């Protein structure tokens, strides 16, 4: 038995070594008809976007941004460019204890943040799940659920004392038209949420109502988008930070804009003459301007989503959709007998994840792309998980090849968007604070994005992508702590009314190095 096993191992090793020697390291689909390779390449060709095409897309995005910022065009603009009422970035000296809620996907976090000054932050946090029934249910129940989770956390942290009213920063990562720092109307749901009765409502008021119903001693003093939180948290450490970028379940960016370019700004024009703009760039393309780069797979992903026709740019980039694009391409190639040969006929497992919408997670794309060389141990495991028993070498190589194309396209589109912002900010050094599971866990996303940015960013500008840990929560806490202090300095009318000032913009200590 021992000899048999050792013998098999030696033969296997020899076969593997021979295979390796005969196989170039780069992608190659072996053992199949050369025409099949051409057919596969033709399908994947539709995902390639040249540098020239990216440059055109950059011009289009810039036009959309200007439309979003123009009072005359804003109403019909797809990239909404919402002013956030955050007018400057922190300088690291902020101190205080603040609570934060971070809602942006199926996970929801409650955080207690201690700002220690000297750019030091301590935090404790707990993750809660948002059940599907709540994501798709009645709006007020969502906020009641958030309040319950917060109360649970506060009890554990011994924060339930009636004499103290804790300030809270709310990271709410959906498109909102802000009317002040603590006042924001949801314009539409994204990322699989469809709670009724929230669109057009002030979500800070809804949250506060839920907190007050339960007598929770907390006052929501600021609402921020996750991009803004990420920018702020990164700026706490790095003064060159001027952009916040999220590449996770959804995608979006924010940046510091000069007030004279923000025609829609209705606040005061005092120093610093700047405001952070939440772009909501996921909606780029919702007016068909990106149709020329969309594939039939993108169209299918869009049509079967909860928000067809919306968030077109997001659907080509973010984690909520990337796995699904790969799955649709795999199915298409399988239909054409170019992939998973032999699995189509006599396939009994049509309930397998490969055949179900959402059955191929974006984390699988990352896993598949982690494989180096021809062993494909991760890819094999993933394919078995989705219902392909004993995948062949070709199956693995092709699935990896598809994944690389889909994720590279996403990285290049995000990179082109970043290049627009960096060129527009036009300072010698620009740091981008980045967060999100796609960026964090995908093995090549950062590299592909940076490479494309180097080709598109004006040569005199140095840029840096900085991963921001827990940025969205920390940033909300930073904004909330400064908002709270600003509000406390106002003449006190009553304990309750001191916070009821939604239009107050926020100013940190640092003014931006002027001019851009
Ligand atoms: C939302 C944005 C958010 C982004 C990243 C998008 O779907 O509309 O507000 O910043 O996802 O979480």
TrEMBL record:
Residues 490-516 are annotated as: Disordered. Residues 243-481 form the Hexokinase C-terminal domain. CDD domains: ASKHA_NBD_HK_meta (cd24019). Its EC number is 2.7.1.-. One of its GO terms (molecular function) is D-glucose binding. Pathway: Carbohydrate degradation; glycolysis; D-glyceraldehyde 3-phosphate and glycerone phosphate from D-glucose: step 1/4; Carbohydrate metabolism; hexose metabolism. It catalyses: D-fructose + ATP = D-fructose 6-phosphate + ADP + H(+); D-mannose + ATP = D-mannose 6-phosphate + ADP + H(+); a D-hexose + ATP = a D-hexose 6-phosphate + ADP + H(+); D-glucose + ATP = D-glucose 6-phosphate + ADP + H(+). One of its GO terms (biological process) is glycolytic process. Belongs to the hexokinase family. The keyword Methyltransferase does not apply. InterPro entries: ATPase_NBD (IPR043129), Hexokinase (IPR001312), Hexokinase_C (IPR022673), Hexokinase_N (IPR022672). The keyword Signal does not apply. Catalyzes the phosphorylation of various hexoses to hexose 6-phosphate. It comes from the Eukaryota. This is Phosphotransferase. It is an enzyme of class 2 (transferase). Keywords: ATP-binding, Glycolysis, Kinase, Nucleotide-binding, Transferase. Residues 40-236 form the Hexokinase N-terminal domain. One of its GO terms (cellular component) is cytosol.
